[in-house]
């Protein structure tokens, strides 16, 4: 089965879900989640090419993280995670919330599906949890991020209709990370 058929089948299934809920014109909000290097961007690009105007893609704001007042916060976080994880995660929450809002407000009259690369959920329950368990956040930093997360999640704009998780072997993810050669990620290992 080709990837295009799979994408169309997914779009059809989401349409069935909307019809079953009695929501004929509701635009579904979908987050695509997965490990770093699992293929989220490629999946979304292929989905966009296959479904054209029926889908609006909201990409992970990596370029914003690479230029915060002239500083590459993503690089700083990878270089010295103990020092920069808190600031980075706070900024991730802000930029992801902005994308949730953009996605919520978007309506061109054509798209029936709005898809975002990652969400506040993975920022909080994957990345922040990992940093906390690794000892890279203090208790007060963890609590601040958590409090902000719960405040942001009360917004209607953060509600999702579906989460697609791309499961990929860690070895494949690492190979893809090395192939795409994003400077900040060169220190990632298994």
Automatic annotation (TrEMBL):
UniProt GO cellular component terms: mitochondrion
Xref: SUPFAM superfamilies: P-loop containing nucleoside triphosphate hydrolases
Domain of life: Eukaryota
Domain Deoxynucleoside kinase intervals: 31-190
Catalytic residue positions: 117 (proton acceptor)
Gene3D superfamilies registered for this protein in UniProt: P-loop containing nucleotide triphosphate hydrolases (3.40.50.300)
Binding annotation for ATP: 34-42, 176-180
Keywords noted in UniProt: ATP-binding, Nucleotide-binding, Signal
Annotated GO MF terms: ATP binding; deoxynucleoside kinase activity
Signal peptide feature range: 1-18
CDD domains noted in UniProt: dNK (cd01673)
Record keyword NADP present: no
Pfam families: dNK
UniProt record similarity statement: Belongs to the DCK/DGK family.
PANTHER family hit by this protein: DEOXYNUCLEOSIDE KINASE (PTHR10513), THYMIDINE KINASE 2, MITOCHONDRIAL (PTHR10513:SF24)
Protein name: Deoxynucleoside kinase domain-containing protein
Species this chain originates from: Leptotrombidium deliense
